[in-house]
Predict the structure.
Amino acid sequence: MDKILQQALNKAKRYCSSKEVCEQDILSKLIQWQIPQELHSLILQKLIEDNFLNNQRFAICFAHDKLKFNNWGKIKIKYELQLKKLPSDVISIALDSIDNEFYLEIATKLIASKFKTLKSDDKQQNQKKIISFMYSKGFEYDIVMNLLKNLKL
């Protein structure tokens, strides 16, 4: 059993070294690799002790990457972090770590680019489409409305 544990631990360390992951990701991999369930908690504990695994670090990186590269808003980021079964305090820390100025800059760029694609002259219809689009990206309604007022679209 020690040999299986050591091999699984080494494989998990290599996986954690390749990208930032959370406990849920590792558990999924351990199941996929058919590692006996009684070893899962030992492996997780060792990965955390050796700082290969850190849910807070993962959540912060995830939040920043999804905003920067996928243009996701906080609602969508929060939802995806909840799917990873992260504690609510860790999710809150990750969302609070997002720079508000950068967040608004991304939202503004998204609204402007969406506005350019709209063909209707009906201002109300265009606003509904922008609001719907921004909501699908996970941005908060009040932020979208404030930006629309400021941009005068």
